[in-house]
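hey team, just a heads up i'm posting the complex here instead of the shared drive bc the drive is being weird again. everything in one block, sequence lines first with there labels, then the predicted structure for the whole assembly after. its two chains so it's a bit long, scroll down
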Amino acid sequence: METVKAVQQAEKAKKAIRMSGAEAIIHCLLAEGVDLIYGYPGGAIMPVYDELYKFQDKLTHVLTRHEQGATHAAQGYARVSGRVGVAMATSGPGATNLVTGLADAQIDSTPIVCVTGQVPRHLLGSDAFQETDIVGISTPVTKWNYQITKAAEIPEIMAKAFYIAKSGRPGPVLIDITKNAQFDELDFVYKKCTGVRSYKPVPKPDPEALQQAATVINQAKRPYIVYGQGVILGQAEAELKALVEKTGIPAAWTIMGLSAMDTDHPLNVGMVGMHGNYGPNVLTNECDVLLAIGMRFDDRVTGKLDTYARQAKVIHFEIDPAEVGKNVKPDVTLMGNCKETMALLLPLLNENSHQEWRAEFDKKYEEEYAAVIHRDLKPEKPGLTMGEVIEEINLASEHKAVVVTDVGQHQMIACRYAKFKQTKSNITSGGLGTMGFALPAAIGAKMGAPEREVVAIIGDGGYQMTIQELGVIFQHNLGVKIVVLNNDHLGMVRQWQELFFDSRYASTVMTNPDFVKIAEGYHIKANRVTERKGLKAAVVEMMEFDGPYFLEVVVEKEDNVFPMIPSGASVSDIRLK
Amino acid sequence: MEKQWFTISAYAENNIGLLNRISGIFLKRHINIESLNVSKSEIEHVSKFTVVVFTTEDWTRKIVQQIEKQVEVIKAFYHRDDETVYQESALFKIKSALLFDEPQIQNAIKESNSKIVTVHREFFVLAKTGRRHEIDEMHDRLEPFGIMQFVRSGRIAVTKAEMPITGMLEEFKLNNN
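-- predicted structure starts here --
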């Protein structure tokens, strides 16, 4: 026995390399296939940055101009590529600046790993310089977090961090590393994590539930699909398309599900939710079976829960057991990755076309077109609309671009009108509604998919929340196209003030700087459009330009986004004006 | 839905920070923790959280789902009082003189099935284990004489039904290897 042990130890010693904790962190990242990280250095993370300097041929570090930008860039990268995004920051303020991005990644299930430096172990809890309890602070907004205080813990914990971030329902993980653990040495051996005993990332599909679901769907007269980001995260786009095409069931996207299916697919009927399409919302309350695929019944989707799809049998395709019955009680629950459950379900389903039922969506679309869409896309008034800008981008990009949006009116308009042929093309802050998301997320998106055109569409409010990231675009010459739809207002809040607060525009009017000059200050080619006649040419010029480009479009100041489900109203009470 | 008492039991890895993560779930939903106990469980290296809440079954179910979702939680359950065997413990510190001067205190000790843990010249300590109302009764009986210190533990509970945690851990092991 002893000889076996001795041989094993000798084997281990052979593989193990003595190195510092800081160097080990780099080797962990490399072992996980990371070649790009976003971050900002500072005192408590300096040993790791020193190693980054030595490894710059293998690992690119992008210095964002604020740590929040690092998290959103990591998110944009993760969302467009399906890989884990990585952000790094120092202790104290560096770490607290990550919190918004962590919360955004948590609510939108985005796999990112954030590494923060921490004061040395012997100073923990002493209110040392730049000490914050980032593990305590980040607990509610991370899928998992951990504080490493010994160098020897690094390989196992980093492996676990990546495994947890990307498995099951993905999410953000924060690893806080004390400075002594970065300096101290360890015998480095890396083993990828393949499981954590208390954690079951993907539940097994239940054959009985699948049979039950098939029976319900096959008997349905007015079945309806609402799909969310679960389809994209589960890489289940082909399965969704096959299911939709075989059964003829009309399908609508949630804001996070957008681009999982070609927007021009005849069975892709539009967007659900507060500013979604008319038919998809109203008909939610007229379908007899609702297939909720990889979505979580967010309140912006359901409106008033008591009146949401009460007539329908609900089939919930869900990977996260905590989502089942959280908002809507399903009649049948299909646990598991929806890629697997849809594939198992498909052979059990009958072919169908549901033409009469589908025609109802067409009819509702015509109503919406007459009342809203025509006005948005082909306006007759002099002022530019956000919708027509999106339409020009659709034309110029041939539906192939990645569209990154911020939060507010422009986001709703983009998610209503942007056209997509390819999945993972709609990058937006859905659950958290983080203004300032788009510019840094577009940086990540462009670096995650350099071969693709990336268009960031941002309002004048959100743009100024992370405008400093123009520095990154300039420094790395990233061919991001930035479109600011400028209405000199915080448009969405102003719209609510107009509709629900008797037009008392409290702090929503903005006096803006010269955005073109600012972009030019960063040596980014810039242009401004104020009239319709210049719009098309300006968009085409932007899209054809090789390199970063900034386009400001001055749009109508007080346009509203319709349709709209007023807060707390039922989906069937959606207003066209 | 009507509010009731529920005992939530969670089996989890014994890791720093998990208590914060679990208590945060109650905080986020503005639900008060009526009592909390963390101890080792029947399984080596596995801790057991016992949390008592007074809320609706719907909320309790959602909380349990959220607790179980945490990476380091193996399994969480909730039970109604009639499905568990549960107790709390209390300690009373009382002046020793009263033990000799007040025959009612001696009766209270005898009748309540409580135990004298220690007797000093100045004070003695009484331990009482039982349901919350039994401890409250004891407290009410002793209060008129003066209680120097009083403390009560969180609820601890075992379920009448089986807790299949060991099997679950075996399954995790099989799936991961």
